[in-house]
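Quick sanity check, L-ascorbate oxidase:
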Amino acid sequence: MGSSFHHFILVILCSSCLLSNYLLLGGAAAASSSPKTRHFRWEVSYMFWSPDCLENVVLGINGQFPGPTIKAKAGDTVVVHLTNKLHTEGLVIHWHGIRQLDTPWADGTASISQCPINPEETFVYRFKVDKAGTYFYHGHYGMQRSAGLYGSLIVDVADGEKEPFHYDGEFNILLSDWWHKNVHEQEVGLSSKPLRWIGEPQSILLNGRGQFNCSLAAGLGNRSSSLCSLRADAQCAPPVLRVEPNKTYRLRIASTTALAALNIAIGDHKMILVEADGNYIKPVAVDNIDLYSGESYSVLFTTDQNPSKNYWISVSQRGRKPPLPPPGLTILNYLPNSPSVPTSALPQSPAWDDFTASKSFANKIVALLGSPKPPTRHDRRIFLLNSQSRINGFIKWSINNVSLVLPSTPYLGSLKHGLKGAFDDKSPPETFSSNYDINIPPVNPNGTQGSGVYTIQLNTTVDVILQNANALAANVSEIHPWHLHGHDFWVLGYGEGKYSEEKHGKQLNLKNPPLRNTVVIFPYGWTMIRFVADNPGVWAFHCHIEPHLHMGMGVIFAEAVDRVKNIPNEAIACGLTGKMLMHNYHG
């Protein structure tokens, strides 16, 4: 890389020295205009589309796939009038990374924060986007995310404020994976005896665009032999990034994959990580970036390479055994060049099973100087064992040997109104046996299903240790990205084997842990997070892999639901809450 790159990284690193003052003062300047209310009217329906050049059925919004990008500024209120045009199924949308302060009913989680929206009905989501960052939205009912119900949500800093880094322009890439088998068939297979696994995706999509059975990079080491011949206006044509030489660009990247762990690289260009899940991080230079489902990043890159050439942007699947789909590709097009296919080889990502590289990357991410620090002590500690179980012959994912099933009455309604019998009264286990051997299949593979909740006292500090283990098959332990609704949390550390306070307690990072809303646990390892239960509501905490959640891999946290106000009746008017509201109406 040329001297301009070294100058660039020095400027970025020095900017981090100043961020503590920036955060303490609440930004560079007072906001020059008041926050706005931004209205959107959406209709969700199935439609024919060709995400990877093969026509299929997708879930679209207003005839678009992916759905429309929401752009707002910190402090704005977003109002989405969402109409369900699906003929035979319910609908909700979750606003991933938005904490829903004072609006837990707008979190968009079926059976948790709201009832599914019935066909031909409209539900109005109203919430504040309180913090700038890179976010997205997606379906949270059944496996509708896998069917294409997702889009980007970008929150810029408020007027009069500035980011703690400079850039000349920005791009946004939303990553997803795509199957040719429809989601209803996938759901039936996951609920069958014996289990019919969904398999690996056929294509990796960038902003909903990929190529199946052909390659933009045929003949350049890509295993696909045929060269794609695409019109620029094809639905599967790559989203070309057009740049000018010697500029600095911000690239926002988010992963809404149903299964795939991904790695993104830009040929011959370094990237500087500056944001993770809507939180500023200490700038760090990387050659490639791991993205697990539910994560988002912002990177800066400088167009300081040969301006007569174009360069590959490559997205590879990692963390699962081959065969895997070919990389998702697009082009970094240096203007005034035409967007022609680069002649260089594809940038290299780590091998699919190079978990050493994955862990090294994860540990590079720390909070920026001046970011909020975690409380030094916890009030409560919950251990969550990630394993598989057999329940009546069906294979399920389970947490502390309990596989989550959601009730017909949303937790928010039943807890707010004190309804009995809506879900299991018994709280799930807070830990697992100290004798459990995480390195072998469970000695007793039989599990149970449950709908109980972890009730957490308001403003307490909670540690959660996510403990990975062997699945039912020998020598299998999978990657699991965990997402917490309603909060950010501090990532205190990752480790190998079974967590031990004596062995690992002193390794925890209490100095500058990053704030995230999604975190990964590696095979046969543990991850510890810490959060403050300061947001009244009912919040899901779950594996963000769609089929794993469908198979029960999640838990429910309830915080001070009695303090939640102004829940719209239509959010909870189903199940037992619906009967109660109807009884009160008829008085």
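Posting the structure with no commentary besides this: DSSP finds nine helices and 32 strands in the chain.
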